[in-house]
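Q: Joint fold for the lines below.
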Amino acid sequence: MVRLFGPLVGLFFAVALLWSFGVGALQAIREPEPATAVHEFHLHPKEVEFSFNGVFGKFDRAQLQRGFQVYKEVCANCHSLKQVAFRNLTDLGYSEAEVKAIAKQWGTKAKTFDPKTGETGERDNTPADHFPPVYYAGSGSPPDLSLITKARHEGPEYVASLLQGYQDQPAELIKKFPDAKTPDGLYYNPYFANLNISMPAPLMDGQVTYADGTKATVKQEAEDVAAFLTWTAEPKLEKRKQTGLAVLGFLLAATILAYLAKKNVWANKH
Amino acid sequence: MSFPWANEYKPSHPLMQWLDEKLPLPRFVYNAVGAGYPVPRNLNYMWNFGILAGVCLMIQIVTGVVLAMHYAANAGVAFDSVEHIMRDVNWGWMLRYAHANGASAFFVVVYIHIFRGFFYSSYKAPREMIWLLGVTIFLLMMATAFMGYVLPWGQMSFWGAKVITGLFGAIPLVGEPLQQWLLGGFAPDNAALNRFFSLHFLLPFVILGVVILHIWALHIPGSSNPTGVEVKTESDTVPFHPYYTAKDGFGLGVFLLGYCAVLFFAPNMLGHPDNYIAANPLSTPAHIVPEWYFWPFYAILRAFTADFFIIPAKLMGVLAMFSAILCWFFLPWLDTSPVRSGHYRPLFRKFFYVLLVDVLVLGYCGGAPAAEPYVMISQIAATYYFLHFLVILPIVSSIEKPAPLPFSITEAVLGKDEGAVLTSNPAAA
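A: Joint structure:
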């Protein structure tokens, strides 16, 4: 039974597949897929030498603090950071008193609600609070940035490249794809998935004044905030890599011993 | 059951003798994975992967049970509760990465285990039941992994659940009500998330039960081996302990090195970035792809792009995808060659390697966007896939001239077997 029906079922699927193949091939010959502007002009992120890359990678605390400053003074106007709490900022090298001050001075206050009177109000943020939500009334919907570097392919490089990628639309693109002209209210950026992003260029040279005297070029600001957002997405990155080195070291030793034990046990059986 | 020359369990300590009378658990272990279980002496490292699959199941159960203590299966907070595990739970990041990559490691190991079975025809009599139970485990694993991927409630979780449950909607007449019944609604939401969580917790223990049956069935004829020649005498075997405990110990070390390298240094390599975006029913991702271990079957599903007579393309895809695994159940009866090992089957061996490449190609196409040339490549690859199992295998096994087999396992290992001389040429004795 199996040997009778098996080949019949197999041939049934094979014929159906070849039918699909034929229909698809005919379609492809009649109407070849048109080239698109996205296909030709989209760019992959640029390589960036981050301190946290590699097996021994570590965060550069000064860079994280600069990146936080960029987030606070620029990004935070539109983008929330809801997975991160103010208390987490001690990881960046801030003291508890500094974290308290950062939380207290944060522009958007924490909302309060008194269940007895039904009154709503506001209070200063504390280190225990997460970064408050951001309400954005303009066009587009700025994503929460807590996980952005893990939510994009090659996230840290993507963020750094995107922030430096604003430019005029190439004349070549408009000549070849007249329909793909960037619409009003959007901005051309070849690192963005569909080339046209709602966010205007957020960074320019000297946008922030770094306390440590680092020159605030667009490249510097973009890489600093990309490093900061890598920390917000993966705050345990350093601990992970350090633990991994210890684990692999132990396993390597144990595996060598296991190999020698195996050789010893099998010595007279080959 | 075992071979007559198996060592007998003889406890020397009075306490162990007492225990052996009341509850012979040490005897059971001794006969299952101890010195009381004779195993062919010529097993190569391909025979390591059964043990490794068992280790993976244990890793998944232990990490999964602890993760369940911190996870909240509610559509409103599920995504944030996973981030809570990653940030605020002690070693939570390690548990979650161990569990997510543990699923991938489990599938790597099981795919190698299955292809070992293909090459050495491990499914042939008297081991059909081991094979049938093994394919059942694989199906249960796929269901478990799919539901587990939904739990973080990211974009791929949500849209993956929508696409896969949508497959049931392709079934004529009952499809749509069936899909709504499975999801508990018109689209994945809290009801679906809760039942997936419940089943994701239950199914690993069902898998464990079937694994016990799988190993029980294995211990009746004993392991197959790379020659495919059955065990004849004591010199063909060695006791499981210490020989295979030592060999498996080394294999386990190599496996853990690879697994931990990914876990600690590239934990998101096998995941999809979109799953770090919270589920949003109003925003469809550009490419909806399942986890890598589903890619070959996903490619078969998507290969059916044209209606076939009265059967809609989508239904054909669903039927083919399920048939692609279900046909494995019939392998013991499709492959009729009396020779097991691919080493002695020159024609079969060639087709085996074509199948291996074919499945890798299908896997690559399944992970690629649904565009040309990937669709056309997967159509050709899927055609070969079905022809291989259902047409080529029965034909090859009946026309092939196998190479001569060694007389025994001992002869294959040592180049000579005293017993062979005695049996094959009685006059010389």
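Q: Anything notable?
A: The two ends of chain A are 45 Å apart (CA to CA). Helices of chain A lie at 2-30, 37-41, 61-73, 96-105, 155-164, 171-176, 218-233, 237-266.
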